[in-house]
Prior knowledge:
It is a single chain. The chain has a single domain (8-194), classed as Hypothetical protein af1432 (Orthogonal Bundle). The model is unreliable at 200-227 (pLDDT under 50). The chain is 53% helix and 0% strand. By secondary structure, the protein is mainly alpha-helical.
Amino acid sequence: MRSAPISPCLRLLPAPVQALVQALEERNPATAAHGRRVATLALQLAEFSHRLARPELEQVFLAGYLHDLGKLVVPVSILEKPGPLDRQEWEIVHMATTCGESLLRPYFPPGDPLVEAIRNAREHWDGTGSPDGLRADDIPPTARIVLIADTLDALSMHTAYRRPSGRREALKVLASGAGSQFDPAWVELALRLWGEGVRRPGPAPTPIPFLHSDRQLHFEGQRRRAA
């Protein structure tokens, strides 16, 4: 099967990272396609906020695209299992975020916001997520956006081990998880963007702050390293 062409935005990344993306495209096209959809949804949500500068939007897109890169080390038999995963299999799948971080870490400076966002893409607002149990504003904003986009796509699309629930039902999951699994302010924006007729229970969330400038990716530097 011919793999999808690499996104122009990914060409800003170091060449070894582009090679990892291509490897995922060839090894598990469904996972790679999910990453592309998550990147698109995350970018749509970030743009809808009207709060993020272009470097931050690029960071959100790339984090969505790369959030499942660690599934390169997950057996295909698990990724394509035609039925529910057992506990041990889920534990292996959940290791993908830290595996993705490990794959990317050699090509980025310490504390790079893209790598941190991928590590923390499954942290929950209430501190019950993984791998570090971060909570609320300790979770990188990009990771909070990606979690919403990831959940929306995963519940809306058919997978080997889950039947799709549809966009509307997926949005209801986001609404019910606001303040526990998801950042309530970003859920509020997601419902405004995609969820006509779906309302988030509870009081209005606090406004979303700007991402801090020290979390911006310096893409010109990335381009020079990739050259």
